[in-house]
Amino acid sequence: MPVLEETEIVRRLAHMSDWEVKRGEITRTYELASFPFAIEFVRRIGDLAEAAGHHPDIDIRYDKVKISLSTHDEKGITEKDFALAQEIDMLLQSMD
């Protein structure tokens, strides 16, 4: 899967709430209701990641969960990253 051009990444991010590019990854930090909710959110992200065969970097800080996505095999941001980011956003909406 080819690495996306910077202009394409910027264009796609304009349609995604709270995602940004940092250090060659797309990232978002979610503020959640509680630590148990954050842990359940991460557990379900794990299910999505396994199904997609694409695994984000995840940082949990009590009620904050930071997700960072890049395609390590391609050494950049690809369609896989945007697809999983959108699934994660939809997951959170389904948990509210």
Please describe the topology of this protein.
Elements: H1 6-13, E1 20-22, E2 25-31, H2 35-52, E3 57-61, E4 64-69, H3 79-95
Antiparallel strand pairs: 1-2, 2-4, 3-4
Helix pairs in contact: 2-3
Short description:
By secondary structure, the protein is an alpha+beta fold. The chain has helices spanning 6-13, 35-52, 79-95; strands spanning 20-22, 25-31, 57-61, 64-69. It has a 4-stranded antiparallel sheet with strand order 1-2-4-3.
User: How confident is the prediction overall: mean pLDDT?
Assistant: 96
Shape: globular
Can you count the beta strands?
Answer: 4
Gross CATH architecture: 2-Layer Sandwich
Strand order of the largest sheet: 1-2-4-3
Low-confidence parts? none
In N-to-C order, the SSE pattern is: HEEHEEH
User: Which class of secondary structure composition applies to the elements?
Assistant: alpha+beta
Reported for the largest beta sheet, the result is: 4 strands, antiparallel
Termini separation comes to 33 Å
Quickly name the level 1 CATH class. Alpha Beta
Kindly give the count of domains: 1
